[in-house]
Amino acid sequence: MEETFSLQELLKIMKKRLVLIISIFVLAVSITGVISYFFWTPIYEASTQILINQKELDQNQYSSQDIETNLQLINTYNVIIKSPVILSKVIDNLDLSITPELLNKKITVSNEQNSQVINVSVEDPELQKAIDIANMTAEVFQEDIRTLMNVDNVNILSLAAKSKNGLPVKPIPLLNMAIAAGIGLILGIGITFLIEYLDTTVKTEQDIDDLLELPILGLISPISYKQLKRKEKIINLNRKREI
């Protein structure tokens, strides 16, 4: 038997189990909010920018060939910045209790397409530590690249500093709660329709018609307990009169 629901029937089903849908919605938002605010560790981010320019810093004009060469070197620089050679010095200079492998996971190196600017971003539970690591990484890279590749085309464009708001980049409780609200709503509606689909009990005359595919000849109206008692009293009174 194929079951199809009209829009009106779907709305009726949702209305019938509205308490269930709202309960799941509120529960999902509440749990996510509590976890985001009280259990997840806030992570802060600090970024510094490195400019890759010409080897001959005294020239005032750039040729297209020089820029193309610099752009080709950026991918190499991205790898070098996160290499153990650079990170080990960063750890020593800042006296960090961390391995180069773990520090590597905290650092993200990126650059815009056709841009000679490299962004070095660091994430850490402590904002000041993230700032220190980002700036030290840029400084060590600028110094060591001269020896590693025999070039002098790296300048620090901007150092990391505390922002005015100083807010963590993750978690974002309001965003998490908004996502949880959508998931909770979908989950509540899904469970509602699943319960309705799995519920095979016969409740109405339409259910009988759909199940047996036979015409309905008549209906018995429901009788309340009070009505039944009244009818019993009337029958008893009539019997007594007949006697």
The CATH architecture category of the largest domain equals 2-Layer Sandwich
In DSSP terms (H or I, runs of 4 or more residues), the helix count works out at 9
Largest beta-sheet characterization? 4 strands, antiparallel
Number of strands: 4
Assign the CATH topology of the largest domain.
Alpha-Beta Plaits
Low-confidence stretches: none
Percent helix range? 55-70%
Overall description:
The protein has 243 residues and is an alpha+beta fold. The protein folds into 2 domains: 7-35 and 172-242, no CATH class; 44-158, EIF_2_alpha (Alpha-Beta Plaits, 2-Layer Sandwich), CATH 3.30.70. Helices cover 59% and strands 11% of the residues. The chain is built from 9 helices and 4 strands. The chain has helices at residues 7-16, 18-39, 64-81, 84-94, 100-106, 127-149, 173-198, 205-212, 225-242, and strands at residues 44-52, 107-111, 117-124, 154-158. Strands 2-3-1-4 form a 4-stranded antiparallel β-sheet. Strand 2 and strand 3 form a beta hairpin. The longest helix is centred in the last third of the chain and has 26 residues, at 173-198. The two termini are 56 Å apart. It is a multi-pass membrane protein. InterPro entries: Bact_polysacc_biosynth/exp, LPS_length_determ_N. This is Wzz/FepE/Etk N-terminal domain-containing protein. Keywords: Cell membrane, Membrane, Transmembrane, Transmembrane helix. It is found in: Cell membrane.
